[in-house]
TrEMBL record:
Domain HTH lysR-type: 1-58
KW NAD (keyword) present: no
UniProt GO MF annotations: DNA-binding transcription factor activity; transcription cis-regulatory region binding
Protein name (record): LysR family transcriptional regulator
Stretches of the chain forming a coiled coil according to its record: none
Keywords, ordered alphabetically: DNA-binding, Transcription, Transcription regulation
InterPro entries in alphabetical order: LysR_HTH_N, LysR_subst-bd, WH-like_DNA-bd_sf, WH_DNA-bd_sf
């Protein structure tokens, strides 16, 4: 028994004629009749009573046809869902975002998906990379966008480097740092510094500028919260400048001129599990994130 035989039976009972049913399916009548006979042989009983020129379903034929219609409808729905998934118009994507990617991508990504792919379900998770990696390895997430400094054991990961983003210091516009000439790095570090975390290289460079010792005053994944504190205090935010672009444009934060020899950048990656097939929904999210990162790098 196969789907074609079930479709042939349904067509026969709907048309009441071997000839018309065969024509509707673009089959020769002998081939169509043979298909019905094979189905009857497998089931061990007639499915159609041939009464002159009329063909009527037997009791078994009616039962088989009723179930066949349901099966064929499900098959049609499976094909439709597969087509929609292939086009990225349905399905789901679960994406894990580090602090800066979350600040940059979350709202634009959700807006884009809602406008362009309204049937596609999106779940975004923010958190430390080790927790996101655990979820990725458990297949609870499809992909991550995180800082490469937070990746260590990546033997089972596909790590696609993204455009780097300029980093620097941001504080309130009337901060004492703007009272005189462009400040040096030790002058900036004399104030409380907040960040989502520092790479070993950046930590080494700031430590060299503060021989008496340096530690972040505040460390948090909540960039919006850190920026709000910077706007209300003498604290200075150190991080990806694109994540503060909105507050800077609105005038309640300002970029501190880069101290000499302290032009720094953040390097992010789109991370998936090695060997895991990429779904169309994940591909759409990946392409959007790369484009957003390119735009942020250009700005």
């Amino acid at each position: 028994m196969n789907l074609s035989q079930l479709a042939h039976l349904v067509a026969l009972l709907e048309t009441g004629s071997f000839t018309r049913a065969a024509e509707s399916l673009h089959l020769s009548q002998p081939a169509f009749s043979r298909s019905i006979q094979l189905l009857e042989t497998e089931l061990g009983a007639p499915l159609v009573d041939r009464i002159g020129k009329r063909n009527e379903a037997t009791p078994l034929g009616r039962q088989v046809a009723r179930r066949a219609r349901r099966v064929l409808a499900e098959v049609q729905e499976i094909r439709r869902e597969a087509e929609l998934l292939a086009q990225g118009e349905a399905g789901a994507v679960a994406l894990g975002l580090g602090a800066a990617p979350s600040a940059l991508f979350s709202v634009p990504l959700m807006r884009h998906m809602m406008a362009a792919y309204p049937r596609l379900r999106v779940r975004l998770s923010r958190g430390p990379t080790d927790a996101l990696l655990a979820s990725l390895r458990e297949r609870a997430l499809d992909a991550l966008v995180v800082h490469v400094r937070t990746l260590d054991n990546d033997a089972d990961l596909e790590v696609a480097a993204m455009p780097s983003l300029a980093s620097g210091f941001v504080c309130r516009p009337d901060h004492p740092l703007f009272a005189g000439p462009a400040p040096s790095l030790p002058q900036v570090l004399a104030y409380p510094v907040m960040s989502t975390g520092l790479s070993p290289e950046i930590r080494r460079r700031v430590a060299a500028a503060r021989p008496d010792g340096f530690e972040l005053h505040m460390e948090s994944e909540d960039i919006a919260g850190l920026l709000d504190i910077a706007a209300r205090s003498d604290a200075v935010y150190l991080g990806v400048l694109a994540s503060a672009a909105g507050p800077v444009a609105e005038g309640w934060l300002a970029r501190v001129p880069p101290p000499p020899d302290f032009d720094i950048a953040a390097h992010f990656a789109f991370v998936t599990l090695r060997g895991r097939s990429e779904s169309p929904a994940t591909r759409i999210a990946r392409e959007f994130c790369f484009e957003q990162m390119r735009q942020a790098a250009r700005s």
